[in-house]
Amino acid sequence: MQKNKAEEYSNPDKWVAICDLTLNNYANMMKRLTVRSQTANLLLIYYSFMLIVISITSKFFPKAINDTFSDYFSIILSILLLVFSLVIQNSRYSERIKSLETSINALKTIKRTINESNIPEKSEEYNRIVDNTEMRTDHDFFNTVRMMCKRHNVKWYWKVGYKENESKEVKKLKDYLSEINVPKEISNILFWLIRDFILTVIPIVVFGICFLHLE
Fold first, then answer.
1. Which of 2, 31, 72, 174 pairs with 145 at a CA distance of 20 to 30 A?
2. Considering the chain, what is the average pLDDT of its residues?
3. Given this model, what pLDDT does residue 174 score?
């Protein structure tokens, strides 16, 4: 068994497949970080704009705006702005994306140049790259498997058993799916969509409340 395993990893095609899987994971990681970075920056601009709108409206239309609500919600939006700024700063999106780009380019080089004569050298280089790169999340792996399932016409949304005459790739995909908590990953997608929607709606609702007069 161990001998077969050693022989398998002495095959360049095996390492090409490993590089492909890792590259897909890294591509999904970069996509996730890019979306999070863009969303956070857009929210920062959006909240800044709405804060200015509330302040200007309060100044030029004092009878239309409830000063108490306006002052209160301006403070709330300012606090949220500070939170967004800290999240962007501490998340280091640009630095992490740049690091992933470097790793992706290095893995592409390994995939292109690996052969039977340089497997030990290239496998060591592969391990060094992976060790120095941010670890993928379960959600990144889920997106990778989902993409591969689409390519091989495999249903990813429920677990199915093996069939006769299935290719190794399809069986491997089903093994991957058995390791993934699909409902949890779908819930994570819904959570981020709902969170972004709520954060988008908050300034509009706040602006509307500022026009309320309770006297």
1. 2
2. 87
3. 82
Cα separation, 171 vs 7, in Å, equals 21
* The dihedral formed by the CA atoms of 41, 45, 50 and 53, expressed in degrees to the nearest 10: 180
Q: In the structure encoding, which two tokens stand for residue 97, read together?
A: 């994306």
Rounded distance, CA 22 to CA 2, Å? 24
What local confidence, expressed as pLDDT, does residue 2 receive?
Answer: 47
pLDDT digits (tens, 9 = 90+) for 88-125: 889 899 999 999 999 999 999 999 999 988 889 999 99
In this prediction the pTM is 0.83
Report d(CA 11, CA 180) in Å as an integer. 28
Question: Residues 47, 77: contact at Cβ < 8 Å?
Answer: yes
How many Å apart are CA 168 and CA 177, to the nearest integer? 14
Q: Render the chain in DSSP notation, one character per residue.
A: -HHHHHHHTTSHHHHHHHHHHHHHHHHHHHHHHHHHHHHHHHHHHHHHHHHHHHHHHHHH-TTTS-HHHHHHHHHHHHHHHHHHHHHHHHHTHHHHHHHHHHHHHHHHHHHHH--TTSHHHHHHHHHHHHHTSPPPPHHHHHHHHHHHHHHTT---SS-----TT--HHHHHHHHHHHHS-HHHHHHHHHHHHHHHHHHHHHHHHHHHHTT----
The CA distance from 37 to 92, in Å, is: 9
Q: Which residue, among 58, 59, 54, 65, has the nearest Cα to 213 in the 3D structure?
A: 65
